[in-house]
Design goal:
2 copies of one chain form a homodimer.
Chain A lengths: L8 H8 L3 H8 L7 H14 L5 H5 L7 E6 L5 H16 L3 E6 L8 H9 L2 E7 L5 H9 L4 E4 L11 E4 L1 H14 L5 E5 L5 H16 L9 E3 L4 H12 L7 E3 L3 H13 L9 E6 L12 E4 L2 H16 L8 E4 L2 E3 L11
Parallel strand pairs in A: 1-2, 1-3, 3-4, 4-5, 5-11, 6-7, 6-8, 8-9, 9-10
Antiparallel strand pairs in A: 10-12
Keywords (chains A, B): DNA-binding, Transcription, Transcription regulation
InterPro entries (chains A, B): HTH_LacI, LacI/GalR-like_sensor, Lambda_DNA-bd_dom_sf, Peripla_BP_I
Protein name (chains A, B): Transcriptional regulator
């Protein structure tokens, strides 16, 4: 996201054979431009590397000092923690934060990009977004700054993205369990395609290998990040002829599902089964027993995402478009050495 | 919040001895008006019942299709649940939701009202706000529609406010515990001055009286709504010479603190102590044992608050400015008959 020099609006207009006002309309998200004309203009702006001038932004374009946070679902403290970090920085900068939930991926449509432009948003922070190429192009083409937090897919090169050290987090969880003496350690991830899941499972495998433990594919499960995802996966793990003595869950919410599966099976934590979560949401310290988990600095990820976005908005050059914040293993009471056989 | 007919901007300007543009500046939150002039104009608008005309609103005033949600702290699923309800309605209405956390009550200053006006907000939803008279006047004077959710203080008459049936909730919790055979039932509230606390404790007392149980003031405690508020109050309750056999906590987060106090005392739930929470946040079903709690329809409160705000914005007449949504007792596994002595 470096500062480029590109053609002017007039040059784009001339090349497209339209009035400058038409180019301006497309740039500012007005809808009264024929689809074909819009496409031509956007294609040209994209090809020629058109850069929205700051002067025009401060002048004709309405500036409403708004920043957008787009989140997949507002249904967990997970997103809330990121939101608090973003809010803190945005408020300090004297801007206001518009929050919207995408609810499902389909909603991240062109209409959404248009509405951001129409209300004069300075830029957007996208949380756990499966940013399809089409949307990425839409945002880039309109030169609307954006930052991705915890990207689901590998974002295209040059896309500013903030995440956590998921590989190191998965490694530390499995390393901790192996050090306690566990030899059959299971892992539950989120959806198999999620970037964060891949990195965590890779870290888990690496730790097992370092500890000289075999990797048993039957002990690796995938599910949603919620309570039921953990419950279903753990139930199936506990029904194995040679069940694990430890389970590394993909999220704290999944870990609560693992707790329930263990309880339903008439087993205890950590007596029969050790459990490690991921995230360190506030309730992790209140579960019974308190949950050992990999702390993900969600609030700080929100802070860094917002600061990065504001730097882009201000035309600053980023040293790196990818930032991974460190995870930490927080050892509580849900992990212990395995029962001696 | 009925439709009033009042003086025009020109009449206010004439009476104040200023230009119409000065009145307009005050209305729209511009800061380049002398404090004394602003005061005079505001006082006149307030006294004469000046109503911001819809025409002017659609015309000269910038409309950005924004609605503001102002929340005390974004630190719990409690606020998140309200937020999801508000977001749903605001999004359906094609508006965008600006979210800000007040962090502390002092921030709800005039500058905040100015910034709402400056960005052309349609109105505001205030969650758990101690709306001081001064701020109430500021909002009313500028005719900026607002709705209060779960007001801390009794809002002034005519102020649209959405809440839950806290009295009935407190009643149902204590009634449930009394019906199980408990005779020493404690209650923990939030801050003693909070309206919701007062109503819940009143409901609890009424249920004890209906059940023919004495009200022991030593069994009524107050604390913050968080984990530590419940922990501190429960520890002190369990140290009483004649401790309670049941504790009705003021929130689910407080209940997790009660769980910890019971655990630290070497007691079990519900064997030694029955516990009832309040809210039914998502984690209530995952605590060990799952928490019996009074469900507060937080999402629905957000929905109703947003719908009410939009009705006011559209100039509709409200049948009632106060709406209380029903609470429900959700019985899980943290309550049981007391151990026979």
């Amino acid at each position: 996201m470096t500062i480029k020099t590109g053609p002017t609006m007039a040059e784009i207009a001339q090349e497209a054979g339209v009035a400058i006002s038409t180019v301006s309309k497309v740039l500012n998200g007005h809808t009264d431009v024929a689809a074909k004309t819009r496409e031509t203009i956007e294609k040209l702006m994209s090809e020629r590397g058109y850069q929205r001038p700051r002067a025009a932004k401060n002048g004709r374009r309405r500036r409403n000092d708004l920043v957008d946070l787009v989140i997949n679902e507002l249904d967990s403290v997970w997103g809330l923690s990121i939101l608090t970090g973003v809010e803190e920085v945005v408020e300090e900068a004297g801007l206001a934060l518009v929050v919207s939930a995408v609810h499902n991926r389909q909603s991240l449509t062109r209409r959404w990009v248009e509405s951001l432009l129409a209300r004069g948003s300075e830029g957007a922070i996208l949380v756990l977004s499966e940013l399809a190429e089409r949307q990425h192009d839409d945002l880039t083409r309109r030169n609307l700054p954006f930052v991705i937090v915890d990207a689901v897919n590998q974002p295209p090169p040059g896309t500013p993205a903030i995440g956590a050290t998921n590989f190191a987090g998965g490694y530390s969880a499995a390393e901790h369990l192996a050090a306690l003496g566990h030899r059959r350690i299971a892992a539950i991830g989120g959806h198999e395609q999620f970037q964060c899941t891949r990195a965590r499972i890779a870290g888990y495998r690496a730790a097992l290998e370092s500890a000289g433990l075999p990797v048993d594919r039957r002990l690796i499960r995938y599910g949603n990040f919620h309570h039921d995802g953990g419950l279903i996966a753990a139930q199936s793990l506990l029904e194995l002829p040679d069940p694990p003595t430890a389970i590394f869950a993909g999220s704290d919410q999944q870990a609560t599902g693992v707790y329930e599966a263990v309880r339903r099976a008439g087993l205890t934590i950590p007596g029969d089964i050790s459990v490690v979560g991921f995230d360190d949401l506030n309730f992790a310290q209140w579960t019974a027993p308190p949950l050992t988990t990999v702390r993900q600095p969600l609030h700080e990820m929100g802070v860094v995402a917002a600061r990065t976005l504001l730097r882009i908005v201000n035309g600053e050059r980023l040293e790196s478009t990818r930032i991974e914040l460190a995870t930490d293993l927080v050892v509580r009471e849900s992990t212990a050495p395995p029962r001696a056989h």
